[in-house]
């Protein structure tokens, strides 16, 4: 049976709770939190059942962080709707006021779905029997309405104690990394952690953020029931000190400075690291025309192809920025216009990036640089086997640059299987067995044309 703490019990427990260590919370980007707390519990030696105030949590994940205490059972129901309260109080006698005259009817709840009530005291009306509707407006006794849902936990302790260290998972809490990149000679990058409380309701907690892939377990029914319950109008606060990072297992752990109080539905934003100076490198890319596998068809006419924009950030080891591990997150790119105003010029994302690993974020397509591709040659022959086809395909890519400075555009071709470049007007660079690129320099206010022929077997 689920129990609830009365207001008096909570007030008596508060001074004891204040003496305990601050709760510690690890947040995952997947929408869950691992909570560690030391609770003020007068636990006797032997077996006892303790009402523990844990808020909304996954009872299957509950553990005691003391080897001398064993968990025998956890009974919990976090629902607090009127329907849920009625189900828990079948057999209870309720009072129903009757108008303004002061009369009341008292009835016992026999069942729900549908509700059935036995009249036990009809007052002046002298009603008797069972009714299938409430005999008036239901008046709840304050002792039956929960102030906070709690779990009844049966524990077996080797000795008596006054505190109990516990650990459990709570649904809804999460975090996400975000980055701001500023272009130009004095460019920089800023990283932030956006912490979402979800259903967490904790005061002055030490918070760690876990970045990395830890695998995924099947969610418990309680976690599934709470998943997707969002909150609107979340407030946002901003911290001023960067987080500290370290290794644990095969993942990264970021420890936030100070303490954070979690109120359901709120969001807290704190820096991940101090702003770092970087000079982003603009990269322009024209994607290839070849299908990665299968046959190649004949194209009918010249087609316009997008020029993709990305920014590569220097991230070498033994530099302030390069030594930082970067958790996956969204990236916003800003530049300054002619009037000195900061403008948002690109958006993208990065994956988990270890120190020293390359950082590149793809944002969108170029406005002033355009490309048009034409298939100039197409011929096929049968090879030794009846199912093998050898194709010779030629392309011409015309690049135009309306900017007042020259740019380099990388034209790519990606293809699996057997293929090679026969000839090209710009030297081809073989990056891997499946990628070849052509770096084409396009003058300011001008254009350049790349031609190349490819042999493909399928």
Name its key features.
458 residues, mainly beta, Immunoglobulin-like, eight-stranded mixed sheet, six-stranded mixed sheet
Largest sheet: 8 strands, mixed
Mean pLDDT: 86
Indicate the proportion of strand residues: over 45%
CATH fold assignment of the domain at 288-306 and 366-458: Immunoglobulin-like
Spans of at least 5 consecutive residues whose pLDDT stays below 50 are: 1-19, 221-239
Count of DSSP H/I helices = 3
Question: What does the overall shape look like?
Answer: elongated
Distance between the termini: 68 Å
Number of DSSP strand runs: 32
Helix/strand structural class: mainly beta
Helical content (DSSP H or I, runs of 4+) = under 10%
Radius of gyration: 33 Å
CATH uppermost class of the domain at 288-306 and 366-458: Mainly Beta
Identify the CATH architecture of the domain at 288-306 and 366-458. Answer: Sandwich
Question: How would you describe the overall organization of this protein?
Answer:
The chain has 458 residues and is mainly beta. Among the domains are: 49 residues, no CATH class; 112 residues, Immunoglobulin-like. The chain is 5% helix and 52% strand. Strands 1, 2, 4, 11, 14, 16, 17 and 18 form an eight-stranded mixed β-sheet that branches. Strands 15-19-13-12-23-24 form a six-stranded mixed β-sheet, with no helix packed on it. The N terminus is likely disordered.
